Amino acid sequence: MRRLVGLCAWLTAAAPAAAAATTTPAPLPPPYAGAYQPQGVDEIGLWKQLDEDERVLANSPILIRDEALNAYIRGVLCATVGAERCRAARLYILRTPLVNASMAPNGTLRLFSGLLLRVRSEAELGAVLGHEFGHFEQRHTLASFRARRNSTDLLSWAALLASMAPYAGGAYNFQTMQISVYGRLARFSRDQEREADLHGIGYLNGSALRPQSAAIVWQNMMTEAERSAAARGQAHPRFDREPFFASHPSDAERAVTMAALAAPDAATRDDGAARYAAALAPWLPLFLDDQIKLNDFGASDYLIGMLSERGATAPLWVARGDLYRARGYPRDLVSAAEFYGNAAGLDANSAEAQRGLGLSLIKIGRRSDGVTALRRYLQLKPDAPDAAMLGMLVSTPGQGQ
Description:
mainly alpha, 2 domains, 4-stranded mixed β-sheet, 18 helices, 4 strands, 65% helix, globular
């Protein structure tokens, strides 16, 4: 019973107070105290599990091992949090077209390619990396582990007592308590996210990058969600709501808070957009192809349009053509042929532009022009995986009409 009372007391005080809306810039980070070393059997066991997870991660088939890309992303991390803190992180970039990043207590930093596709500058990427490093430095994963363990201990004792209750309301009271405990854990997680946001902006305020870019990340995420919902015919998403079991604050709250926490005198700093675009340019076709395969027309169309704001390129025209051709409405195929033509006009040696152009033209009944484009594709890429199939298509009279 004494343990149960103690757990109840812990549950009441576990979650830190939510960050109040403020116009005071986030403070600069304190001197780095070094990576935390696990203490006790539970923590050592958790670290061993994380080390094993990292061993599997290092051999993952979706791990991007390109040295240039990894060195560049690590450079952005170091520019954000500082060289001393940066040494504690081991970076793993994963080819996954989703928006996510995480940092484990043992220093494993995971970064999904879907995030790299969406951020547009070093400052925006630094905001995300700084947020994750804030989780690491504040040992949030360890705190969450303890919170979940203590909560399940509490519920186990409560379930035992409820089963011994001499009245029918015991089970109902236990169910009510379950909801309260899980809701408290969700609030605890949201407060951790707010604290990590505070530290992430603090890192940017102390760097040479523009901290105002952090709010842009969430503004773009909300716009993408709106475009995705509109294309699917779904209701307009609400970004100002915070569900009871939400693990993160609302997107609208985070955008407003990050804008307020950014140092005003840092608004004229470089955001590194040009350097970021140059570093990611070789990877855009691959990342866009992965995104298009998610079958989310609205989001993909928005991302391509956002990337085109810096200037239309052949890979972006090809991606837009792929997007419309994948949806496959008759009018989409006409548009796709136009987009591929634009790509071929910018880069006559773009094999993918010729391939998409040829297939689209054949679909809309312009077989002769389509065959010409496909033959050009086979000349540019004779060892293509689909060379044999397309060779049969262009050599068979009437095929594809």
